[in-house]
Write a structure and sequence with these properties.
This protein is of the alpha+beta class. It has nine helices and 26 strands.
Length: about 425
């Protein structure tokens, strides 16, 4: 559990624009590459990035329990994440001290800072394995109503354990990466045989993902009580889906080509320490859970999530507003269930929340739900409509927490959809 306390009144000597996602209380981690230089780790503050590799080399992090070799000069955050929560908290406290109003230690060292708009943001972590959960009661219920109208919306196991599946880590890319519409087999209900071609039901999935900082040995498990000590932070996560491919292939083994072609994450990893002021109680779990899934305290987070669709040369339209707090199964339960059988998690493993749908129509986290399987077209700002994503559409997710004047944001994850090749 986090031991870091956030001071919402704290100010930085670095200029932070009003409404910025990145005040001194956030300090999210990312990997950036300045022009003509190698990739390295940094933290966002206002519109700038503090170069952690250079900060380490100049000796300003010498009392934080870091190793002799610079963990921030790597092309990913994995080396640093593997050091564990005690080090993460120590470094965060030191960065907060250095950046706080009145501290002049690095104030006259412009070589330590870069403008965000002048660098390339890279994939923040190397992902050994990726698991996608299915933890939104509203999303699971909506899908059940659409695809099994003559049965109860939820399958019998859903309220007894966090449902998930093992996904494809190699096709997870950072925000800004365009991708081509996937192709595969589809078979509409009216067709006698399947056919091959581009997906006609390309969809978003509004998710967040937590990143494992420190794992566990094979044969051991992680409890709900200790789960947060293993979680480094969260990112926005768009787990694109080809619904027509998925509906034909998923019986009996589940998702395959309909899910493995592309997913995208925001470049900044927001730590649990930064999210501490935004803890809330999650939904009431009305079905008693087994002992290993029981937990105490507030394990959910009030993170507001928005989805935007922009047609080619068109106007941006908000098509969804949801919240992370609606997830029925929280991250501690997800990680406890993932490891209860002795599965060994590794540094950099990514666990998607599953589609986060709110308990109201404008908060459904997929176009499948928003258009109710294509029967209710979604109206856009420019007068056009959508049921699923069309070629050259741009999809943008934004996420942030806001409370008593404090805003902690995740930035955004943006992708443009290109035609099939």
């Amino acid at each position: 559990m986090s031991i870091y306390k956030t001071d919402s009144s704290l100010k930085s000597w670095v200029s932070v624009p009003s409404g910025s996602d990145f005040p001194i209380q956030n300090l999210p981690y990312g990997i950036f590459q300045p022009k003509g230089h190698s990739p390295r780790a940094g933290v966002a503050i206002g519109n700038q990035i503090l170069d952690l590799a250079a900060l380490y080399n100049q000796g300003f992090l010498s009392d934080c329990g870091l190793p002799e070799s610079n963990p921030f000069s790597s092309e990913t955050l994995n080396t640093y994440m593997a050091l564990g929560r005690t080090v993460w908290t120590s470094v965060r406290a030191r960065l907060t001290e250095l950046l706080s109003e009145g501290n002049t230690t690095i104030q006259n060292k412009p070589e330590l800072f870069y403008e965000q708009q002048e660098v390339d943001m890279l994939m923040p972590v190397s992902v050994p394995d990726y698991t996608d959960f299915y933890s939104s009661l509203e999303h699971a219920s909506n899908v059940g109503k659409m695809f099994r109208p003559d049965q109860p919306p939820l399958l019998p196991n859903w309220k007894h354990m966090p449902i998930g599946y093992h996904g494809r880590a190699s096709s997870i890319y950072v925000s800004g990466t365009p991708f081509h519409r996937p192709k595969g087999q589809t078979k509409p209900p009216t067709a006698e045989k399947p056919s091959y071609g581009p997906s006609r039901q390309l969809d978003i999935e509004l998710e967040m993902a937590f990143i494992v900082g420190t794992g566990n040995d094979l044969g051991t498990s992680i409890s709900t009580e200790n789960a947060e000590d293993h979680i480094f932070g969260l990112v926005l996560f768009n787990d694109y889906s080809a619904r027509d491919l998925q509906s034909w292939e998923y019986v009996p083994l589940g998702p395959f080509l309909g899910k493995n072609f592309f997913s995208s994450v925001s470049p900044w990893v927001v730590t649990l320490d930064a999210l501490e002021p935004f803890r809330v109680q999650g939904p009431v779990q009305d079905e008693p859970v087994l002992d290993y899934l029981k937990f105490t305290g507030e394990k959910s987070y009030d993170i507001q999530l928005d989805v935007f669709l922009t047609p080619e040369n068109g106007k941006e339209s908000k098509i969804c507003h949801s919240n992370h707090k609606y997830l029925y199964w929280n991250m501690a339960q997800q990680l406890a269930h993932h490891t209860v059988n002795g599965c060994n998690m590794r540094t950099g493993d990514m666990c998607g929340s599953g589609t986060i749908s709110a308990p109201y129509e404008g908060g459904f986290g997929s176009m499948l739900e928003l258009s109710w399987r294509g029967t209710k077209p979604i109206a856009l700002e420019d007068g056009n409509t959508r049921t699923f994503i069309e070629d050259f559409d741009t999809i943008t997710f934004r996420g942030y927490c806001e409370k008593e004047g404090l805003r902690i944001g995740f930035g955004e994850v943006v992708n443009k959809i290109l035609p099939s090749v």
